[in-house]
Amino acid sequence: MGAAAGGSAPKGIPVSLSIGGFGTGYSLPSRQAALDLSSTSGTPTSAGASPACPAPSATPQHPVRAREADLTATPRCTFPPVAYLKRAVDTGIFERVHVRIYDDDNCEAYWHLAWDRWTAAYPVTRFYVGMTASKMTHGWVHPKNVYYDVMPSVQKADNYSGFMI
């Protein structure tokens, strides 16, 4: 995760570790694998303890502290998700899911329905709307549309938590 992430915790900056992204070859094989990843990502050693990136040094003014990291997933908005991601999210370990409503033809017109399905399927998970900030990205939404359409729709879910840009 690197020294930069490790230095964020003492400053009060939350650290988010996201599982997902491009490709279809990644999954967590079991609930235990997710627990193992979650428990090791919050230790001081994960903040950069490797020969290439040593752990930060403690001083009386700046002690090295364990920090929390949210284990998140960033799926495309289509629901149900692809099998490898569904297996991972079904473990119940993910604290946050960032549902991407951009760069996906299947979500352009019906993202509202997918959002409702995601939030209903995992009621204890915090959900964030994943949006792009770049006008050049397929699925960019004008800020006025975010304010008048996206926000009122997503805020209806009890487990809505915010936006991921």
Automatic annotation (TrEMBL):
**Spans annotated as Disordered:** 36-66
Q: Which residues form a coiled coil?
A: none
- InterPro entries, alphabetized: GH (IPR017853), Glycosyl_Hydrlase18_Chitinase (IPR050542)
Composition-biased stretches (Low complexity): 38-60
Task: Spell out the GO cellular component terms annotated for this protein, sorted alphabetically and separated by semicolons.
Answer: extracellular region
Task: Answer whether the UniProt record assigns the keyword Chaperone to this protein.
Answer: no
UniProt keyword Calcium present: no
Q: Which domain of life is it from?
A: Eukaryota
Which UniProt keywords are given for this protein, alphabetically ordered? Answer: Carbohydrate metabolism, Glycosidase, Hydrolase, Polysaccharide degradation, Xylan degradation
GO annotation terms (biological process):
xylan catabolic process
User: MF terms per GO, please?
Assistant: chitinase activity
Entries under SUPFAM superfamilies matching the protein:
(Trans)glycosidases
Protein name, please?
Answer: Xylanase inhibitor protein 1
Q: Which organism is it from?
A: Dichanthelium oligosanthes
Classification lineage: Eukaryota, Viridiplantae, Streptophyta, Embryophyta, Tracheophyta
